[in-house]
Records
---
Amino acid sequence: MKLGKKALAAGVLAAALSLTACGGSGSATPSGGGDGGTPYVAMISKGFQHQFWQAVKKGAEDKAKELNVKITFEGPAAETEVDSQLQMLQAAIDKKPTAIAYAALDPEACVPAIEQAKAANIPVVQFDAGCKSDYPVNLAKTNSMDAGAMAADHMAELIGKSGEIAVVGHSQINSTGVERRDGFLNEMKAKYPDIKVVDVQYGDGDHLKSADIAKAMIQGHPNLKGLYGTNEGSAVGIVNAVTELGLKPGKLTVIGFDSGKAQLDAIRSGLMAGAITQDPIGMGAATVQAAIDASKGKSMPKVTDTPFYWYDKTNMDDAKIAAVLYQ
Amino acid sequence: MSEVKSVPRTEASADAVKRESPGGSFLRQRLQQSLAFGTLIVLLAFFSLASGNFFTWTNISGILLSTAVIGILAFGTTLVIITSGIDLSIGTGMTLCSVVTGLLLVNLQLPLFIGVLGGIATGALMGLINGLNVSILKLPPFIATLAMMLIAQGLALVLSGVRPIYFSKVQGFKDIALGQLIPGLPNAVLILVLTGIAAYLVLGKTLLGRYIFAIGSNEEATKISGVNTGKWKILVYTVAGIFTGVAGVVIAARLDSAQPQLGSGYELQAIAAVIIGGTSLLGGRGSVLGTLIGALIMSVLINGLRIMSVQTEWQTVVVGIVILVAVFTDSLRRRREA
């Protein structure tokens, strides 16, 4: 606290310098974290342990470097910890950042905190999932319902539009888990009457649990033609199950979501037919950009759809796809 | 007032004496085991009738494989729980061990056996620290191992750089869990059996085993009779750590990767298996065979419910109820005996 005034003074000085010298001080400020001058975006994510969030973080950091902005990126240890995420949001508000970027774990629980940000006059942008409040200016997210439907179309095509399939989900609560499942199930119901979804179970994205679930499903439904895993852990779990059971390639069509080395390897080797990928790096970059724009009062659409793609053996090395896949 | 108070105390000490008599505890253990064993048979029979796809060799070997990790963890914990301690660090500790194995084999490209031994040694080291904290610093086991659980969770993330470590280039690593020295049976199951035998021998045939029961029955009395209980408790936690290390290697081999975010929650499943198997949380009573049966009950139950396509949320409820019933029947039986 004692340093506060000095830091502020230094910050103002740095800001003044950078205005006149046009970035001449750039080399000094970012590492020092100058809390006065450099804009500061506090990013509160749904988590940080999954590779997806690490990729979002990377995109955000790269963008921050480009814009000469300071960011912090934090999230709870598990995507069920709604409460500890709200505490992080609260702490971020107290730090009076230039802007807050937030990914809501629960759309309702966050409303009071967002109101506080509003009262403190801190602009809020959102990524991945939104809060049920009118205050945030922008939400950069993947339309998970559409992405789920895209997975369904590819599954249907691959199994010849008839037969039994099942889903290994990663959550029956959080929005991506629910929407990727429902987008898939709705599309199946609406467009492919001969395909029967015989089972939907949840492995929390835990590789081991998902593998055991997939094995039980394959045992319980001997006529199963396809399995869909709604995130990296679920999808890799299915692949592990197929390997452990020693099924012949092609007996079961496996479709996944997101990337990660194990999933990419499985697609290359033919164990997995393909997967849907989002653009987490792009999402991170778009979020930081939106946060800075919001702090300058620029107007922008309420929702920015970040892209998603189907990838398989044939296109995964294309520049556009390879750029959004992460190891 | 003082008279009323003294009555239960006499009963309790009488119970303690009874518990220490080897014949009685042996008989009681057998009974509890047969109870748990009966439950297992009933479950197997029920699921076999309910679904034609349950009782096939592929599925049974799948069940055994899915028991391996939790079972190995549970063996180590059994030893700790019989001393009336607890070890909450086994879940994330297991993950830290697999990350260390990953660093040794993938990042440093050391030979396979060094990676395996390194993972196991990490477990032993964590156990040793747990033991020191419990014995020397006199921390309650719950707190000491809770702290270790968090430290291990954090270190696993830090050391791995918050990303999975893949073993795909390490020749033969996957075979530790999924190879088949006995055709049709994954090696992980073999390791489960071997660690079970090891735990059984430690508990039944060594001085350590005898002191584990003695400490759990009455630590004060054991100390007064001249046993350095602190030293033996350090050893118990260290041995439990070795089991954690083995589990870490097995889960890494099965997933062909070290997943740094995994592991929390595994400790509760292992503890549940121990309790269902008839080991008392109060200490002084328990068996390795019971724990194996307890772990099998859990995995048979979960597998059967999955095969029957019972909703995931209901599966969790059913498992909870089974734990309640198992522990309640056990306490009923003990009350009747008392």
Note: Strands of chain B lie at 165-166, 257-258.
---
Amino acid sequence: MKRDVLQEKILTILVDDFEFVQPGLDDNLRDDHGFDSIDAIELLGKIEGILGLALTREEKEKAMEIRTINDILDYIELIESSRTT
Amino acid sequence: MRNGLLSDFVVTIICWVWFTLGFILFFSWRYVAAVLFAHETESSIQRLNSRFYQVLFRIIRVTAPNHTWEIDEQVAAIRSAVIVCNHLSYLDPLLLIALLERHRTIVKTRFFTMPIFGWVLKKAGYLPASGKGQFAGMMIDQLESMKSFLQRGGNLFIFPEGTRSRDGKIGNLNRGALKIARLCNAPVYVLQLANTDKLFTPGKFLFNTRITNTISLKIIDCIQPTHPDNMPSTAILEQRVLKAYRKQQK
């Protein structure tokens, strides 16, 4: 999946489901949008839906360190590439 | 005055004796047995926590009779819900644990690193406040199992202010509890607790047994999912919770 398509999907989810207002790609998710560990776990479920796969425990733990929307996109691309190689 | 202070001191010491010796003599071996032999360790530990604090509150009721208790019987009957409550004293979480046998709650992350106490918290299925670093796995496990825990009759109770109120007024709310309610499509019960801070005041070491006081706990709102798969947004839930508290303060 191309990054710009992925970006649009993630932004739509963050606005619609997590009530983000005007999210920026390098905003600090916690400080700027109140995004916490509970949100991260909910988002992981939605990422699984986008990718059509189940994340492993290690992959989920890695996601808890995500800070920005760009980090989310990097994370998804990393998962995609690791599953295709 | 001196007799009053002596009474405060004696009640405080009795409670601490229960916390330490009472735990070692009457409960420590039960916890070990629950971990080794119980079919469902988590619910067994929660039940033991509940029993332990039920005894503590019996002790307080007997030794501090100037404080009367008006606890809404409906509170102990709540099942499968996220419960939010205002926070006045360190006694508050202990009271809810005593009342709700099947419960989980969110605890300050640093408590999980304490010997024995941290172990009990982990075994009880409580959630760390932060999911960072070594606590990421624990947070994931507890949240992923939360929906089934609630569906099986358990309750998650949280003090969304995060800290004890010093003036009795409701402070800013952390939305974590409401996010979990949405995630699990669970009803939110809003509880109002009053005057536990008169018995065990923030910043004080001794219980205050001298004043005449009524401690009360009641349900002031219940927000049900409007549709099986359609919970209000977190912002709307927060507004409703705040409205319920502000109505009580008028």
Note: The domain at 2-249 of chain B is CATH 3.40.1130 (Glycerol-3-phosphate (1)-acyltransferase).
